[in-house]
Amino acid sequence: MADKFDVIVIGAGPGGYVAAIRAAQLGLKTACVEKWVNKEGKTVHGGTCLNVGCIPSKALLETSHKFVEARDHYAEIGIEVGDVSANIAKMLEFKESVVTKNVGGISALFKANGVTALEGTGKVLSNSKVEVTGKDGGKQTYEADNIIIASGSVPVEIPPTPLTEGLIVDSAGALEFTEAPKRLGVIGAGVIGLELGSVWSRMGSEVTMLEAMDSFLPMVDQAIAKETQKLLGKQGLDIKLGARVTGSEVKDDEVVVKYTDSEGEQQQTFDKVIVCVGRRPYTQGILDDDAGVKLDERGFIFVDDQCRTSVPGVYAIGDCVRGQMLAHKASEEGVMVADIIAGHKAEINYEAIPCVIYTAPEVAWVGMNEQQAKAEGIEIKTGSFPFSANGRALANNAPEGMAKVIADAETDRILGVHIVSQHAGELIAQGVIAMEFGSSAEDLALTCYAHPTTAEAIHEAALAVSGHAIHMANRKKRK
């Protein structure tokens, strides 16, 4: 038997590495198992998020956005730059440098906090044991008082469009295109599809998005979703709703995709296709038959509100359990579980977890949307404010979008905040904090905001809940 640990974490993604660091900070002897190997054959930390997900995609989103700004919009504000071109090879180099810095940072944090990094594939055995299979196939068994499963998720593949090297790719493959495909098909118009479609549309691709659902971004407040669809359409994204993909055929380095819509059977030819129809939990092979940890029919690990599994001392967090597949949700669960193991009281307010789509403009929200509130029979009042009436947004040459605050009609408690705008992902934090502290719309309305800032749009939306917005025509008179 090898070393015994107080905590062994399986997976070093945003949930796992944070859980491991937190546990070590609390004085627990901690190890973290990771199997991810980079192109050079070196084990790296950070999981999907840092290696082929959140971080590299944001690098390409930012560089492609800057390119479009310089090419199409700098002249509007008096900056003459002449012909602007994009060097995709350099963009990819930048993306890789960002990834390298981030994953290297985690390894340094492990060393600084005394976390033992175990290389290989972890499997939970019975009786608080973890088996680690190394790259050479050798197996080592470790014992732990507590185990945290943070194995993450992987892209969903669909039979009609099997992945085909260089032609039909998943979200990771879409980050490796060395040139913009002339005709790009994106299956799925969710968060990942919109972000990747935006990147390559900016670089010159004709992007067609095939979304099986009849509504656009149904999880987003529909006023925000409608505005977002309009803005992205103006940018050139051809979003086809109610388009259910039924098959595909590769012909001479092209992909013919067949789908059905309200008008019947259709087909369209693309140079490349990205499949972005969601992700599934990565739980296959990480649990021994005798481990006792229960899964549901979709492969998610059953946990309670504090991420305890059906086996005492075994926890699971992040994408492999219920709830939204978000890096920050996984991180917070990791902190919570480490605190619980160390004997502290800890919990998460799952109603105050923000979501962001990093298109331009960005879309961000926290809490309930209007359709959810109505479906639950909750009487609400809302306030909205357009960024076209915000001084800083106009000065930034970014007047697109709106902010919306939803409050309980009786108590004035904020139930949700929804934004589509430049930097919405940053602005949403004030909505999260407000909800975390149980604020009312009046609390935000009575808060002094710096001027000029785009955050003032949230202030005005909160004022508008009671009909008191200053910088727009009011429907109600102040009492």
TrEMBL record:
Annotated coiled-coil segments of the chain: none
Recorded superkingdom: Bacteria
Cofactor(s) named in the record: FAD
Catalytic activity: N(6)-[(R)-dihydrolipoyl]-L-lysyl-[protein] + NAD(+) = N(6)-[(R)-lipoyl]-L-lysyl-[protein] + NADH + H(+)
Keyword Disulfide bond: yes
Cofactor binding note from Swiss-Prot or TrEMBL: Binds 1 FAD per subunit.
Cell compartment(s), UniProt: Cytoplasm
Record-annotated Pyridine nucleotide-disulphide oxidoreductase dimerisation domain positions: 353-462
UniProt cross-references to Gene3D superfamilies, sorted A to Z: 3.30.390.30, FAD/NAD(P)-binding domain
InterPro entries: Class-I_Pyr_Nuc-Dis_Oxidored (IPR050151), FAD/NAD-bd_sf (IPR036188), FAD/NAD-binding_dom (IPR023753), FAD/NAD-linked_Rdtase_dimer_sf (IPR016156), Lipoamide_DH (IPR006258), Pyr_nuc-diS_OxRdtase (IPR001100), Pyr_nucl-diS_OxRdtase_dimer (IPR004099), Pyr_OxRdtase_I_AS (IPR012999)
Domain annotation FAD/NAD(P)-binding: ranges: 5-334
Uppermost EC category: oxidoreductase
EC number: 1.8.1.4
Keywords: Cytoplasm, Disulfide bond, FAD, Flavoprotein, NAD, Oxidoreductase, Redox-active center
Note: The active site is a redox-active disulfide bond.
Family: Belongs to the class-I pyridine nucleotide-disulfide oxidoreductase family.
Protein's recorded name: Dihydrolipoyl dehydrogenase
Gene designation per UniProt: lpdA
